[in-house]
Amino acid sequence: MVRTLSITVWLLLILLPVGSGVLVLLLTSFDTKAGVSLAVFSDLLLDYESILSSFLLAIVAPLVACYLALWMAPGLLRKPRLQQLLSPLLSIPHVAFAVGFMLLMSPSGWLIRLVETMTGLFPTPPAGWPLPEKSLVTVMVVLIVKELPFLLLMISAQLKQLPVNSWLIRAQSYGYSNRQAWWRIVTPELLRRLTLPMAAVIIYSLSVVDIPLLVGNNTPGLLAQRVYEWTFQFSVESQVKAITGAWILLAMALLLLLMNSGHSALYRRLALNKKVIRPGRFNSTRAGGYAWLILAALSLGVLVVLILQSLSSHWFYPSLWPASLSLERWQTESHYLFEPATHSLWLAILSAVIGTVAAIVLLQRQRQKARQSFYWPVLMALFVPQVPLVLGWQQALGEQLTDGWLLWWVCWSHTVYTLPYAYLVLHGAYTRFNGQWLVRAQSLGYSARGAWWRVMLPMLKQPIAVAFAVAFSVSIAQYLTTQWLGQGLTPTLTTEAVSVASGGDWRMGSLYALLQTLLPLVVFILVGLIRTKSYAEYS
Amino acid sequence: MRFIAAISLLLATLCFALPLKASEVNFYAWGGSPEVNNYLRWAQKELRAEGIQLRHNKVADASEVVKQLIDGRSNADIIWVNGENFHALKKAGALRPIADEIKALNNISPELNWQSDFGEPVDGLEVPWGVGQFNLISRPGLFSQKAVSAEALLDAAWENKGRISYPKPPDFHGTTFLKSLLLSLHPQQSEVFQQPVKTANAKKLTEPLWDYLNKLHPLLWQQGESFPSSAGEQISYLANGQLLMAVSFNPNDYKTLVNHGRLPAGVQRHTLSDKAITNNHYLAIPVSSNNAEAAKAVIEFLLSEKAQQRKADTNRWGDPSVLKRTQKGDKSSALLAPTDDFHASWQSYLEQEWSARYQ
């Protein structure tokens, strides 16, 4: 049964969607008029600034986020409840987070306004502030802060699978300090299990468009951003640049993923060869605690500033508070929210359930075949550029898109994206699940299927719930798939939010961003409430 | 089992909960302005009384639907376009000739030069919906004249280093900014820009512009290393005090945006060069529309006296009417002194030359 199911998943959710998209990509690439051109290819390579910035961003942001997460993660061991702090940051859509973050931190942001109100130093927003409105550094900081909670969540899910405490105690008996044991014994194992989540973070950093459009420097911008802009310009030259640039991005993604797969091995070599040094005065544990505090303050600050924006009549520099607050905007919009909110909710629930179940099917099949490595094709959808992919689906589906099945196809397109995320969240915990438990269960008289249902599934409850929550938020964030396959007939909170945001009126934009945040927030909080005993501790 | 039952129940309710109506008129229009969205909600209500279901399919950029009409599929019945998007659709043969069938065109103001859209002949493939006039919105005291010359702009930039910028071309606001500068740098030769780039001596004509920008850019916001991505973004920077000016294609924005709390009171409107580059934004029906008759009825309504009056109200959208002026107590305010847009070929020429130099 698992075999049949896994073949179905492969066909419906991987081969069909990615295949048709790649086919369109190839067809366009070899188009004689607007296909890939060598001349343009070398032009783009010569104009290396974009490529270099993109590369830098996709290496630095994930690495910094990763090591910050590893540094902060011991806090999760001491206080597992800290995971709840991550929920708001995980739920806020990326662009909304960037806007909220800039409303706090930019040269005209709240922090500067506070200084201005108290000292009168900045009658106009200061130039030369280290976090300018638009720069590569700004993009980097926004991405790091946004990726950090995701990686912490991934680590938290893994920590529940590992006998970390007994490792730490044993290490201490050999004379290691807690910190040293963490970096030398726990971290190598965590990094190995983080390979896939890191792959997702890297691909995201390389392909993200909306954040650099908002806070990135744009002469020239990042490569993904330029490819996106060329895609929507209709001259032949732009189309050639778009398709050629897409291939360069794809090659960069492959290279980065290759580097990523060597990351944990490299770390292991470096960490184990390093001499043990006496810990200095710097109290790393306490600093980690402050980092959690800053993260919490930041997520609270972003939420508050978005709420204030959505209520404000007007709010100009250097006022610390909006001129007046009113519910009018919320009241007016409330009449129009039912349709997009229902669409968002249904699409997210369905595509997250299907995506998570499909991921479990694939992983179970892998266990049966005793393969621990992961299937690259599952992640393909994440790094094939979305525009040709969705255009390919539109062409393949044709008339299907006009009748009553529309919503199902939108749901299917969301599942194409929820599956890879559910898969990579679950992969570490599922494939490294200790088979001894199943053997013991079967020796106690359970059938193989019974052991899976009664022992393995409950033990993996936590990672499965996290996978569902991540898949849910992935579905909530879908814009282009919803807009194009849904033909505008399935508006969601996200399609509303993205179109409103394009005008730059962040009072209305914040309202929709908050609504977008609400659904995943509930899911993440519920997931955080799941109490699982750390079974791994007994192994 | 319970889980599976619950899921099937969900699926069943879903099937009943979402009837999708086929008789709707799908109007694809940019959804970035709450005022425009509210205006279309009103139109929706009015049209429902006539038995027409209008659906505003909000997009972040009109080029999304253009891309679909050219390379994919679209159920659009009406689209809101102009400029490059119209040009691309016309070239692809994706639009219906509708001008002869729209009766409301008889009431269009004769002063409106709507037969050419960014220099491209309209050929009846779209009908004007509103008027765009390129203007600057500034904090009081930045410019002393109503008409700002290129030189005055440079002086203002000297005195307010890092506080002036413009949207990055190829955003059409940015490109129009460059065109206005060209007009100001060549006050005697505005006709030459109506000619195709090839027949004019573009290189020689634009040289003063690039010299000018080379002087201007180091004085701009972030030393001209980054530009606002759009006019909307620049309005936000103006509101937050990072910038002292923004650009707009709506001649009433300096009033409407204040009325809606988007900009502080007291901002002023100027033209860059002596006259405002003027063009229109249009409504068009794609060839692929399944509901063209109802779509035409919607367009008739949107061009009616009632709908245009409401659109021009500066407490609402504030987009100037395209109709003949009927009574004196007209709510719409006077337009700026207009000048025609450049020939379409200048658009991509300026964008390419700009990109080659500054990005």
Automatic annotation (TrEMBL), chain A:
The superkingdom listed in its UniProt entry is: Bacteria
Tell me the compartments it is located in: Cell membrane
Instruction: Using the record's annotation, list all stretches that form the ABC transmembrane type-1 domain.
Output: 51-260, 337-527
> Which Gene Ontology terms of cellular component type are present?
plasma membrane
**Record's bilayer topology term:** Multi-pass membrane protein
SUPFAM superfamilies documented for this protein: MetI-like (SSF161098)
Keywords for the protein's UniProt record, in alphabetical order: Cell membrane, Membrane, Transmembrane, Transmembrane helix, Transport
| GO BP annotations listed | transmembrane transport
Spans traversing the lipid bilayer: 7-30, 50-73, 94-115, 135-155, 194-215, 246-266, 287-311, 344-362, 374-393, 405-426, 464-481, 511-530
Q: What is its main location?
A: membrane
Database matches in InterPro entries:
MetI-like, MetI-like_sf
Q: Specify the protein name.
A: ABC transporter permease
| Phylogenetic lineage | Bacteria, Pseudomonadati, Pseudomonadota, Gammaproteobacteria, Alteromonadales
From TrEMBL, chain B:
Q: Which residues form the signal peptide?
A: 1-22
The organism's place on the tree of life at top rank: Bacteria
Task: Please provide the record's keywords in A-Z order.
Answer: Signal
Entry-linked SUPFAM superfamilies: Periplasmic binding protein-like II
User: InterPro entries of this UniProt entry?
Assistant: SBP, YnjB
Q: Does the keyword Membrane apply?
A: no
Presence of the UniProt keyword Signal in the record: yes
| NCBIfam families given in the database record | PRK11622.1
Q: Which PANTHER family does this one have?
A: PROTEIN YNJB (PTHR42779:SF1)
- Its name, as the record gives it, is ABC transporter substrate-binding protein
Q: Which organism is it from?
A: Idiomarina ramblicola
